[in-house]
Amino acid sequence: MVSHAPRPLVTIREASAILNLAESTLRGWLCDRRLRFVKVGRRTMLRRDDLDAFIEAHTVAAEAPLPSILERRRQRATSGDTP
Questions:
Q1: Does residue 78 belong to any structural domain of this protein?
Q2: Residue 43 — φ and ψ, nearest 5°?
Q3: Does residue 2 register a pLDDT over 70?
Q4: 20: domain range?
Q5: Which has the closest alpha carbon to 38: 15, 60, 61?
Q6: pLDDT tens digits for 9-55?
Q7: More confident residue, 4 or 67
Q8: Residue 41 belongs to a domain
């Protein structure tokens, strides 16, 4: 049987490095309750799983790139269309 130990808690400083944010920005987000956090005594900690979920929820999917202007001009030139 495989045990799934909980991932460790991280400090605000560590979380801000993971998210590439200023600590003050992250603290503001915590005050606004944009991220879940855990209070351990006086310390504010974040679960790594919550950070990963936040990153996943705010990831924008890539789309197929649009043809470049040069490609469109080439297509028009070969098809005989004029702009």
A1: no
A2: -80, 140
A3: no
A4: 1-59
A5: 15
A6: 999 999 999 999 999 999 999 999 999 999 999 999 999 999 999 99
A7: 67
A8: yes
Number of domains making up the chain: 1
CA angle 20, 22, 28 (to 5 degrees): 115
The DSSP call for residue 79 is: H
Tokens of 70: 């040069």
Residue 73 lies inside a defined structural domain of this protein: no
Residue bearing tokens 């991280």: 10
Q: How many helices (H) and strands (E) does the chain have?
A: 4, 3
The residue type of 48 is R
Residue type, 16: S
Q: What letter would DSSP give residue 35?
A: S
Q: Does residue 21 lie within any of the structural domains? A: yes
Q: DSSP 3-state assignment of 45?
A: strand
Backbone angles phi, psi at 32, to 5 degrees: -80, 0
pTM: 0.66
Tell me which of 25 and 69 has the higher pLDDT: 25
* Contact of 15 with 51, CB cutoff 8 Å: yes
